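Lab notebook: predicted structure, single chain.

Context: the supervisor wants predicted structures on file for every construct in the current expression panel, including those that have not yet been purified. This is the next one on the list. No modifications to the sequence; it matches the entry in the shared construct table.
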Amino acid sequence: MPVITYNTVEGALSDEQKEQLTQALTEAVGKVVGPKIQKSAWVIINESPEGNFAIGGHKVTAAGLKKLMP
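Prediction complete. Output recorded below exactly as produced.
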């Protein structure tokens, strides 16, 4: 069974975005390894508080991530 883990900052994704992400990742598994495996794919979205993520020594915030999303 494939397990896909998506890590992000708490508050960066809406419930609708989480649902869309879960569906898209599950479909990607099916396209690559087949529909039988797709049925058992797990998608885990981990949300950590702001301050627990940094890129290049700079804190990543939910607001900053939202600016990058359409």
